[in-house]
Amino acid sequence: MRNWLVFCVFLVLALGLNSCRGKQQVVTKAPVPEIATPLTPEQQEIKQLLAKNGFSRDGAKSTVLVVKKMERRLTVYQGLKPLKTYAVVLGGNPRPDKLCQGDLCTPEGVYHVVCKYNHPRWDKFILLDYPNKQNWVKFGRAKSAGQLPEMAQIGGDIGIHGTEDPSRNLAREDWTLGCVSLLNRDIDEIYPMVNDNTLVYIKKR
Length: 205
Prior knowledge:
There is one protein chain. By secondary structure, the chain is an alpha+beta fold. The protein has a single domain (40-203), classed as L,D-transpeptidase catalytic domain-like. It has five helices and eight strands. A hairpin with a 2-residue loop joins strand 2 and strand 3. The radius of gyration is 31 Å and the shape is globular. The protein starts with a helix and ends with a strand.
């Protein structure tokens, strides 16, 4: 009789445990939605530039170089993502926008890369499509307004390159005729990322 009672108690306990286990539920946490980081004003500008230049679909893969003249900085973007910022120096008259050959100004605006090549003096050279349509418009207006001599030429051969005298760049001396100059080690980093789809946005600040 006693053995039978022990067996019944054991059976009840076993059934109760199984019943409790059967009612257990696995609680899974709901995924936390990602909060989109707001774009900076500069990223908004780049987004518009990419769309305007036909890169709306594969813009995330496009390299964009942004030069801020007053900060003497060049930032490399992969799409809208900033990768790295470098110190630069500019033309000998860096503040104004370039209007003509010999004014020693660095042009402002959006440019495309024409080609790139090793340079005997400045390590590497990334040639831009200056003068573009906007530059010709500025040049024509300046001439019509009498701001330029009658014989003034718009110029060309503007690009981004290294330096033959790193001490001048390190001293933040604006020594070029209108180009953007970096240390050779910096242009060497940027060079592989640049191709004919690269946009170069040069702005005052």
